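Field reference: "sequence" (input) and "structure" (output). Example, DJ-1/PfpI family protein:
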Amino acid sequence: MRTFLRALAALIAVLLVPGVSAAVSVTSTFGAFHAPGPERAVPAAAPIQHDPAKPTAVVLVGELGAVISDVLVPYEILASTGRFNVYTVAARRVLLPLTGGLDLVPDLTFDDPLARTPDLVVVPALPDVGQPSTAPITDWLRVQSARGAQMLTVCNGAGVLASAGLLDGRRATAHWLRLNRFEANYPKVNWVRGARYVDDGTLVSTGGILSSVDGTLHMIERLAGPAVAANAAAAVRWRHYRAGPPVSSGLALPDVVAIFNGGYRWSPSTVGVLLTNGVGEIELASVFEPHSQSLAARTLALSTDGGPVRSRHGLTFVPRGDVAGAAPRLDRLLVPGSARIAPVPGAPAPEYVHDGGFAFDATLRDLARNIDVATARWTAKVLELPTNGLVLEGPAWPWGPTLLPFALILLGVAVVAVVRKRPFLAKR
């Protein structure tokens, strides 16, 4: 027994350092996803343009923010049609952090008249699903459901409706990484696996993140017709569109590369993202989302002067700094969209990743070149971005984060060996 206990103690000692290191790193990485920015003034409300002849679609944002692509991708697709009044809505008019650190000012609050009777409600993944902090949201959603509003849930936004009791007895899907938990927490829902979207009457739910493109286009087919949906797909350069029944999505499993990046990439690169007036909403999401999901880099929203920026279809974003002030912290400076800027003294040279195709395709290629191909493929899997026809070139594997835990284990073995050879060290 004594020999066994000694061996167990030695094993624990060897694994303690890499285990604790991974736990600290993962906590820090995921904690940064929805971290609020510094205190800043909320810009004055922009004039709301509303056409009463068009149906109104609102994209919900939670009190603690939301997943950036879940908000911005459906928003731009709907807005690009010209057939809808499209707004973002939240409980209060405050700065709301989207994943990756992009702070959004919502167009409407629940008390605004335009938010009381929307025709379509888009529900993204929220960081506090099922928590008491979502009570104002679930209360508002129950009201909208009772009055017959169409619902489009994106990714784990289905969990928000499920937590409100609005999916009981209905078919729905969500991100493949979360389905097991949802099945346990919300057993009255008929959860569907392997679908990019599920149509259940007044509810369309989508799978992981970019499955929202297919689900949003399907909703547009229902509300405005296939021709409008096809034009919307062309407007955002989504090459996978097809009208008709739901397409299937292959089931996936987590990759080991995520463990190495999340647990042992102790110094992720800092990527400045320059916000410019008129930038596309999907272009913004395509830079912030992949870097966050890759677990290999962190993004910092900037503008040239630190002031707010208006996107292509009228959303207001507030950066977390200006380029000159953030320059010493930056490893790269990416400029989404087609804007071009003069180099900023002391900052990395501006890089332009978008090439006119679907924005996420370009940023995945950039991720492969600047991080590695394995990380880019893992990121595409998390995003549910189809990679057929997408060529990814760059380093094959994240060797630094991969070798680090083994180095720590070897160091632990060496320390244990020294202690066992010199028992007097263990007595002190």
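The chain has a mean pLDDT of 91.
The chain has three domains: 26-37+254-401, 56-235, 404-428.
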